[in-house]
Each structure stands twice: as C-alpha cells, then as structure tokens.
Design brief:
alpha/beta
Length: about 675
C-alpha cells in the first residue's frame, strides 16, 4: 500500500527572511520542501533544508564537558541533569557576584530572541547581547539620530522601487542577496529609472548601473560629502525643506565645501568626473531613492557618521518623506506586546559596553558584545563570571583568539546549538535544539505577515525547542510564572493580545494574517514633525553633541589605511574588506552542508589582476592573507571586479580561514561599537 504524503505550511529559517514553504512529510519525516514564494527560487539555502535537519553531525542529546575546555570530550547526560547544572551554575554566580555578572548572548535565528531577552532581564542581568553588536544596528542608530524613530529602518524600507522613483542610488548592497526585491532592482532601468551604484566591487547590479562609483572601503562619508559639495554649489539643494525642517545645514554646507572633487577623488579613489556626474544625476531626477546596505557603510571606525552623511543626501535634495524617495515604514496598529522586560534595565547596574557606547546601548536596547572581552579581562565595573548563550558564535568576534581566552576564564558557560562549533568547545554544558521545521514558531517581527508555524515533524533524538529550554530554566531559577509556567500558547496569546487574535486562531490560518497598517502620507512631517529632540532632521545631532561627539556627519580617515598610516601600508599595502554576503551561507552557518558547500567549496580572496600579477598569484593559488594581527590562508580569485588596491574576503569562515583573525578589536566605532572589518590593511602573498 502506497504511503501518503502530507503537505504542511512551514518556513525556511536559514536566514531572517523566513520565506514561506510547503513541507512534504511522510511517516514523520520531511521528504521534500517546496518554496511558496517563486521570487526566492534563486536562493539555494531553502533547497538544502532536509540536508540540514538530517545531517549526521547534529547534536541529539544534552552533553556535559568531560576534561578541559577545548578538548572536545563530552559525556551524554539527561535533560534534567543538564538543566539543573545550568540553573545551578547561573544561580551560583548570581548569589556570589550579582545577576549582572552573567552575560546572555544570542545569535541566529532571531525568532527566539524575545524569549531570550525576557530570560535575561527576568534573571536580573542587564547583559542581553546579540550578533546585532556588529550587524545592522549601527544603520538603525544612525537613522534614528538623524531622522527620528520612524526612519530607524531606512535600510529595510529603501530596498524596493516605487512607481514614482526616477533615480536610485544603491549604496553598498549587492541586492542579489536581498530577497525578494532583487529582481525589481535588476530591472530598474527597464522602467526608465536612473541607477547609481556605490560599491568597491563590480557586482551584478553595479555592472548594470548608469554610474558605478567604485570607492575605497571606509570612505563612504567623504564620497557623500563630495557629492553634497556638487549639489550645493550647483544650487540643486532643496532650500525650502532645509530651512523649515532641518537643523545644522549651515554647518554641513561649510563641511561639504572642504570636500572638493579633487580632494574627494584622492580620498575615495573615485574619479572626480564620476562623482560630479552621479551627484547631478541624483539631484536632477526627483523623486530619487537611496537604497542602503545593512552594514556596508558602518563596519568602520567612523561607521555611524559615514552612514549619517550618506542618508543626509535625501534631506539635502528634499527626497525624504515623499513617494518615490525615502519613506518610512507604514505604522503597525496595534503592535504586538513587547515581552522583553527591558524596562527593568534602568534599575540594574550598567551593562557591558554601556559606559563606552552609551548612545548605542540606550537606543538599541542591547549591550555591546564587542566589549565582553574587555570586561572579563579588567573585571570593571564588575566581574563577568558566566555566560548562557544561544548559538555562541566565536567567529563573530574580531580577534577571536582573545574572546576565546577570555571565555576560558569564566566559571560557567552553557550553550544551545545544532552542531559542535568553536563556541561549544568553550562550554560546560551543550543543549541540542530543535530546528524551525521541528518547533512551534510565532512570527511577529522581521516579516509583513503574522503567523504561527506548527512543527512539521518531531525533533530528532532529544532536541528541544528554545522556548522549552528557556521556560524550564526559568522554573528552576524561581521565576517560571514570568514564562507562563512553560505554556508557549499562553505566551503567544499575551504577545498577540493587542491584535485581538489568539494562538488557536492562528492555528486555523496557517498562511498567517496581514496586520493592519497605516501608510504615512506624503510629507507627513508637516503635521507631525520628525521624532527627534528638535522635531526636525538633525543634520547636527543634539544627541551626539550631548555626548561630546561632533554633531555633524564628519568624515574620519580609517585609523588603519594607506593615508592614515603610510608606513604601515608599506608592509600591508592592500585594503581589506569583508562581509559581502554569499548566497550559500548565512554568516558562520551551513558550510557543513555538502549541497551548499559545492557552491563555494573554498574561501576565496578576490584580488585585482594589477595586484595579483606582481605577486605571482593566479586564480586557484593558495595564498596567505596577513595583517598586523595575524595571518590566514585562502584560495585566490583573480578578478577585475574588485578595485585595484583592495581585496575582499568572505566572513565567518572557520579555523585557518577566519578573516576576523585579521580584524582589529580595539579601534571600534565610538557610537555603535562596531568592528572595522571592512577597512583594514593587509598583505596577500602566495603560500
């Protein structure tokens, strides 16, 4: 008798997009996954989901360290024992040093973050930390400081193309890695839209552009100021908008005058004629939209100010708050309940990085992960003695050897994971987790649809959902009532209560529901103002001024560059940029999936022929990439798609190819705390 196959609604959660899927299940096993969204057919990750969940190396049982940290010697234990040890380890540190001495760190995926955030603050620690310490949040803060809260998500709202758009600048985004709007941008010119791309690489979208500004990494702010100089001198700025709705324009005008075309070319490596042409094209073809990268402008020591300069091009030309230009997201009414308990933080000691990066920690409601090693080593303002981590990604940190050595000093570490990683090797307890196809998922963030995903299959071995793990720990730590005594449904009902729907209702609507939104009217600011202290666009930021930081979007040369350190550049003459997305992988994940590994089997350093030839390097050669911090090995890809004098490397590759081994973890952006992983000096040599 033929076995029947049941088709269930699901998602692919191999990145944050959470694309809808149809999951085919037979005899309790996923046999096939189809996408329910044809726009993501080009993405290879969703096609490899079964390879992930049925990978032979998946962690299936709770493990206890046997031997020294890093020996990879483990003992299988029961869940009760694992949870008891974890709760006891955290409670012991809390009793002896205070709850703030425990750091809670979470990586991907983002769906469990509200529960983890709640666990952190219910425990009494301010130290909720995530990978957002080096991803996206700096652009959020830059827009928040400049335009106010409603524009914080400018990077997300800028990705598409509106019917009114006549010109678009795509700044630092390859778009091919940004489903589902990538096709729209690739076809922009077919709609008569003028296209400008800013990128040190000649990406697919850059090759199609009317103008490609191929700049030296880290000089985005200077390029933006140089374009402003042209726009102002040609009298193409929107005087009416600037007079009525901005503060600080006269200071910006004076600042931009310093960035003549000749000087800007020297800094950015972009020919002066191209800078002028791009500025005029953008200013004369209105409405125009800036399409912004989540990280391209901010992975630098001056990242927030760089990004502020870029986004202020919209205010300068009056392209803010108008259809076809940069509009804020529609208002979600009402919003789901926030369960993070973040209001408790005000009564707690200052969190990790709060003293050094107060603007970021207060506005983004997280602590700065890049300051963890500093505090472990110094013990100030209080000692860090334990960590509970959901997916401890050691490769995320610049100078990962330093954070690894720091973590070894802690009294206790517990980690949830799918597979063994460099992070699990630092742990005392490892807890195996269920995948997105094996656990209930309530989606209310990072999506335009509110939905409840039911498990398609049971988790393998003894894997558990992260909700189960956090709520069980909450019980053992004495605040199980704050986790609805372990009831996921009651928690979901609380989150959904303002929307007047329930968990049970969503079970009957597996496709989800579209929440009510209220679009922003054109020039909405004329009635509401901007949500800044002044009620206007703050070209000169009042918040930055209060913290002793230049309020204007000043450009600072990267502290390690051919111009700032010419003597160092003699030994390390190339500018290294990293972090460009590779469709096969999400940060450090999925290189252990053969189907995806074949798409990029080796870590490749892209190097221009002009730089490769004198070094005797050919495509396929093994090369050493070195910086003042150390060296790694990769394979060379000789290509003229990268600017001469610049090399680009993939991020989060493990072991001997981890580019973050080369990145400075001391010279951080003073506002966001981001690492300067896109503008460091290096040398490439044949191995």
């Amino acid at each position: 008798m033929a076995k029947t196959t049941e088709v269930k609604d699901g998602i692919c959660y191999m990145c944050t997009t959470a694309c809808p899927m149809k999951v085919h299940v037979r005899d309790g096993r996923v046999v096939k996954v189809d996408t329910a969204d044809p726009s993501v057919n080009h993405c290879p990750r969703w096609k490899a989901q079964t390879d992930f969940i049925y990978h032979p190396d998946r962690l299936l049982y709770p493990l206890k360290r046997a031997g020294k940290r890093g020996d990879n010697n483990w003992q299988r234990i029961s869940w009760d024992e694992a949870l008891d040890i974890t709760a006891d380890g955290l409670q012991k540190v809390k009793d002896e040093y205070g709850p703030e001495s425990v750091v809670f760190w979470i990586a991907y995926t983002k769906e469990p973050r509200p529960y983890f955030h709640r666990l952190t603050h219910a425990f009494g620690s301010p130290n909720y930390c995530t990978e957002s310490s080096t991803c996206f949040s700096a652009t959020w803060v830059a827009a928040n400081l400049t335009y106010g809260a409603e524009y914080s998500y400018m990077t997300a709202s800028s990705a598409g193309i509106d019917p009114e758009t006549r010109c678009k600048i795509i700044w630092g985004s390859a778009v091919i890695s940004t489903p589902p709007v990538w096709q729209v941008n690739l076809k922009a010119q077919e709609k008569g839209i003028k296209l400008i791309v800013v990128d040190p690489r000649r990406t697919e979208i850059a090759a199609k552009a009317d103008i490609h500004l191929q700049l030296r990494p880290g000089t985005d702010g200077a390029l933006a100021l140089g374009m402003m100089n042209v726009i102002i001198s040609e009298n193409l700025h929107d005087k009416d908008f600037l007079d009525k709705w901005t503060v600080g324009f006269e200071g910006l005008k004076k600042l931009a005058q310093e960035y003549t075309l000749e000087r800007t070319e020297k800094i950015t490596y972009v020919p002066a004629a191209k800078i002028r042409e791009a500025a005029l094209l953008y200013a004369r073809n209105k409405p125009a939209k800036l399409h912004l990268s989540a990280n391209g402008t901010t992975h630098h020591a001056n990242g927030v100010q760089n990004h502020r300069a870029v986004i202020l091009l919209a205010a300068l030309t009056g392209n803010i708050g108008v259809p076809g230009g940069n509009m804020p997201h529609p208002v979600l009414k009402p919003k789901p309940n926030d369960i993070t308990l973040h209001d408790r933080v005000e009564k707690m000691p200052p969190g990790v990085g709060a003293a050094r990066f107060p603007i970021w920690t207060k506005r983004y409601h997280e602590m700065q992960s890049n300051a963890i090693a500093d505090q472990i080593e110094s013990g100030k303002p209080y000692p860090i003695k334990a960590m509970f981590s959901a997916g401890l990604d050691i490769q995320f940190f610049a100078n990962p050897r330093r954070i690894t050595n720091a973590l070894k000093k802690l009294d206790f570490i517990a980690v949830t994971e799918y597979f063994h990683t460099p992070g699990t090797q630092t742990a005392d307890i490892v807890l195996p987790i269920a995948s997105w196809l094996e656990r209930p998922i309530l989606l209310t963030e990072y999506t335009d649809t509110i939905k409840l995903i039911q498990p398609a299959v049971s988790p393998p071995g003894e894997c558990r959902s992260e909700w189960d793990i956090y709520s069980e720990l909450a019980k053992r730590l004495g605040f199980g009532d704050l986790f609805w005594d372990g009831s996921f449904e009651k928690c979901a009902d609380h989150i959904l209560e303002p929307l007047k729907i329930t968990c049970n209702y969503l079970k009957t609507r597996p496709e989800g529901i579209k929440p009510e939104t209220e679009p922003r009217p054109a020039k909405h600011y004329e009635k509401t103002g901007f949500r800044t202290a002044s009620g206007k666009v703050e070209i000169a930021s009042s918040v930055l001024k209060e913290h002793g930081i230049d309020p204007l979007p000043v450009y600072r040369e990267p502290p390690e560059s051919p111009l700032s350190q010419p003597e160092l550049a003699e030994k390390y003459p190339l500018v290294m940029t990293t972090g460009a997305r590779v469709m096969a992988y999400t940060h450090s994940q999925f290189r252990n999936i053969p189907q995806l590994r074949t798409l990029m089997p080796d870590p490749l350093v892209d190097i221009n022929p002009a730089d490769a030839s004198p070094r005797g390097i050919k495509t396929g050669d093994t090369v050493t990439v070195s910086s003042p911090r150390g060296s790694i090995r990769m394979k060379a890809c000789v290509t003229d798609t990268i600017l001469p004098g610049v090399v680009t490397l993939p991020h989060h590759w493990p072991s001997e190819a981890n580019v973050n081994e080369l990145v400075d973890d001391r010279t951080l952006d003073p506002i966001s705390g981001f690492i300067p992983c896109k503008s460091q000096l290096c040398q490439v040599a044949k191995y």
